[in-house]
């Protein structure tokens, strides 16, 4: 990406946040993606905290309303491989299990409403 195409922060940001973003501008892509992932998780947590819902970080996601077997692992539906990762979210009082796994070069997914 050339310097002409370099993204700029939104003008509506508070100065302190804009300064924090400016400090990140020279970071490598891995560090920027890690920061972005954290900020997405923080935004989700902030939204859920303001709605009176439980926190939604990775630890809380893995424990909300899951069916577990004797070893404490999540029980996967019959058509979902055991190696699939699962994220559990509660939205408007309904619990959803999001399964995702790799099948060769493709990424497969399935959502199950509980």
Question: Mind explaining what this structure looks like?
Answer:
A three-stranded antiparallel beta sheet has the order 1-2-3. Helix content is 32%, strand content 22%. The termini are far apart. About 18% of the residues have low confidence. It folds into two domains: 41 residues, no CATH class; 60 residues, no CATH class. It is flat. It has 114 residues and is of the alpha+beta class. It has three helices and three strands; from the N terminus they run αααβββ.
Largest sheet: 3 strands, antiparallel
Overall pLDDT, averaged?
76
- In the sheet with the most strands, the strands line up as 1-2-3
N-C termini distance: 44 Å
Overall number of structural domains: 2
What's the total number of strands? Answer: 3
Overall spatial form:
flat
Indicate the proportion of strand residues.
15-25%
What series of H and E elements makes up the topology?
HHHEEE
Uncertain stretches = 53-72
Give Rg in angstroms.
19 Å
- What is the helix content? 25-40%
Sum up the structure in keywords.
114 residues, 2 domains, 3 strands, 3 helices
């Amino acid at each position: 990406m050339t310097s002409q195409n370099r993204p700029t922060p939104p003008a509506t940001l508070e100065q302190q946040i804009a300064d924090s973003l400016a400090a990140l501008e020279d970071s490598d892509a891995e560090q920027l993606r890690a920061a972005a992932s954290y900020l997405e998780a923080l935004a989700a947590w902030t939204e859920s905290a303001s709605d009176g819902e439980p926190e939604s970080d990775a630890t809380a996601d893995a424990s909300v309303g899951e069916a577990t077997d004797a070893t404490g692992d999540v029980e996967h539906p019959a058509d979902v491989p055991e190696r699939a990762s699962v994220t559990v979210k509660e939205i408007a009082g309904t619990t959803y299990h999001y399964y995702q796994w790799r099948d060769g070069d493709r990424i497969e997914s399935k959502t199950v409403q509980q």
